Recover the amino acids of this structure.
């Protein structure tokens, strides 16, 4: 398509918006995430010689103009403008998270990268926020890298999980690149490489002292705990990774306390998600922290967010022309937009989805802000802790019904008068001319 | 853990195996994929100065010996041996896809990378094989990159989808790096940037001629088709992306045929997976090819394979010691293994999971082969077409019950006498000493 736009000299400015069509039924909100990687991508985007030569020989591009490969692609840089809802903010179906205003081929070329970056991280950040909510103040560590969809997904998933409120990750690259706190515990192999579990635990605490977390379920959990107590190993925590976690955590607590090891914490892991954690918390299991893996990195109950990137406006003969499509069940709203958040008693009451050039509705706070002009960031990235804190505060201001984990209320997104009218007009025009 | 092994001079050889604990209930088999990226990773693995400095300052590693950072990590290279089931082969629960024999810290350090690489690609290749089966000979194009978990997942997911039988992908990096055929169709934006759909289609066919695929559902599908016919546009195909695909494909075919455009093919897309495609095929919908997106790149019905990487053998005082763990519901089998496939009338009858040094069972064909020694590949990678062909042929030799899409039979994996005996012995020893 980019070659086509170039061939017909269609380099007029266009506006594309990226939004989640509809939230998965189990989600009352989504957390916007991934913007920082989007801006990195746009700032660095270019085509090197090998890439251009590869494209040139593709049969599908045999009729593209030679100048597309010789002149356009070698000089290609993203030089557009980007508006975005800040990372960490809750968003809802239909609301643009990202707005790209650039000449047509540029805005088009970046579609796939923008969608996969924003949707993946938003999916994980949302899941993390739910899991952290279920844990009711107990720390949640992200352990999902080994089931993530490759190394990059492991690293960026851990970043998104931190935005969503996790306390840290076991993914070291994420720690190094983004300053996310890292921590880990021993794996079963540590125990299995030693002649006895007793040797394994002694060696580990000998080296790592009071920061040791001992994994106690390799053979028999309660025997392991009794041994920890009788040997007075005093690790920082023990980790339960299998079995009935309510019962095991109670018995573990009892054994530790009876042996004078009240300070040793209990960490639980093993196929946990927000539902299992909220059940454990409700049952009063004496668990101090959770480790969560695949539920965070792959979100089995909503393994992708149904996001799209669509043209909403194009400049034709110097005039801004709003556009929309009317495919069955996949209608889009025309025009460049803004989202205004509206509060009542410091709780988010509803959002107004309107046209960017409409006046701000009374009391509405605009969410989309300009973050890039002429292909350059307008300011340095927020620190990951700032984004995490924004996410925490903003979700706290959602109503309990929207935040609830099971059967959340549908949040009220209202169309502005201007957008309602424009949608009707554009539909009418399209119906007339087709 | 690696620092711990180093601190206690635990650099004896160990054997770890990677396997899928149990196949998701809807899957009769999985397709092994990702080995080529595993070997790339192992050949290139090293720690640069910045990485080592980052690790050195981590509070969790404060008590690790200085020589770990000063001597061990700077010189670190993977120098072990790897055995693997070739990419493309069907595998079953409990069967090691990968075996790493290396000194303990080396074998341990690679765990996360190996798991995420193999499990993700195997998940996608398996899904692709099922979707291709449902399509009954009609080509399936991979369109999943925009919903993939980031750019790397988009590229490697497309690779795995090709292994699983897809005809090509819209992900250009995958085409460039692995030689997978690429193709695409217009998006809705192409139509929306033009004043009328008629202009949009004319321009596209003008440029791309007989290879054009026209997306016809932007406004009204059947009007678009009648216009294609009346304008005699003769694209290569039209694409339906929404609505009732059975009915729309029938009406589209009728309109195209009546207009003398019998050669124009019909491609269907829009939230398709193996179940929807098999329903479309069963309903006799005149669809010539399918485009599949998120179902391939994110596998909503089995968004990760429950794979693990566990120690099965360690050399202690010069003696090979088989190891296992006995966590509730997470028992592992001790010892270094081999998988022998057994055929009856050229159909796979059962596999034998046994110890690597047991004699080959009568008629059994060993699946695990040595692919890396001293950290170097033993041969060049198979071409992606070779792997795709292997996968096609090998799945054809599975029984219909194992291959079926809904409620597949559980494939028969038998434990060898040697492995059965060893499992009992090791369990007994561990029970005795803990």
């Amino acid at each position: 398509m980019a070659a086509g736009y170039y061939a017909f000299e269609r380099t007029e400015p266009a506006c594309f918006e990226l939004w989640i069509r509809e939230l998965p039924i189990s989600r009352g909100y989504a957390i916007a995430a991934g913007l920082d990687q989007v801006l990195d991508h746009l700032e660095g985007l270019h085509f090197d010689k090998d890439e251009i030569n590869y494209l040139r020989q593709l049969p599908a591009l045999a009729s593209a103009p030679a100048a597309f490969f010789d002149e356009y692609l070698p000089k290609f840089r993203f030089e557009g403008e980007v508006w975005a809802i800040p990372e960490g903010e809750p968003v809802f179906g239909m609301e643009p998270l990202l707005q790209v205003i650039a000449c047509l081929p540029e805005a088009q070329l970046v579609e796939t990268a923008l969608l996969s970056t924003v949707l993946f991280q938003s999916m994980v950040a949302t899941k993390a926020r739910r899991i952290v909510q279920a844990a009711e103040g107990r720390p949640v560590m992200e352990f999902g890298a080994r089931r993530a969809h490759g190394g990059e997904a492991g690293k960026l998933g851990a970043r998104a999980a931190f935005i969503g409120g996790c306390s840290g990750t076991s993914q070291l690259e994420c720690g190094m690149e983004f300053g996310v706190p890292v921590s880990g515990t021993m794996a079963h192999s540590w125990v299995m490489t030693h002649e006895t579990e007793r040797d394994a635990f002694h060696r580990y605490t000998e080296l790592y002292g009071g920061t040791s977390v001992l994994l106690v379920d390799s053979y028999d959990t309660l025997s392991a705990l009794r041994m920890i107590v009788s040997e007075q190993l005093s690790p920082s925590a023990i980790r339960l990774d299998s079995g009935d976690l309510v019962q095991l955590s109670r018995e573990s607590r009892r054994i530790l306390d009876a042996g004078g090891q009240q300070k040793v914490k209990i960490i639980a892991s093993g196929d946990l998600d927000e539902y299992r954690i909220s059940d454990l918390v409700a049952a009063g299991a004496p668990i101090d922290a959770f480790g969560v893996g695949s539920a965070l990195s792959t979100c089995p109950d909503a393994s992708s967010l149904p996001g799209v990137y669509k043209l909403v406006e194009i400049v034709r003969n110097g005039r801004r022309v709003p556009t929309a499509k009317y495919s069955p069940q996949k209608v889009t709203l025309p025009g460049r937009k803004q989202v205004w958040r509206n509060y009542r008693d410091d709780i988010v009451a509803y959002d107004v989805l309107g046209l960017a050039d409409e006046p701000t509705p009374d009391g509405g706070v605009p969410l989309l802000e300009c973050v890039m002009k002429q292909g350059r960031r307008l300011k340095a990235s927020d620190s990951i802790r700032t984004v995490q804190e924004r996410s925490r505060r903003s979700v706290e201001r959602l109503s309990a019904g929207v935040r609830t984990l099971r059967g959340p209320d549908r949040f009220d997104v209202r169309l502005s008068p201007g957008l309602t009218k424009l949608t009707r007009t554009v539909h009418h025009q399209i119906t007339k001319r087709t």
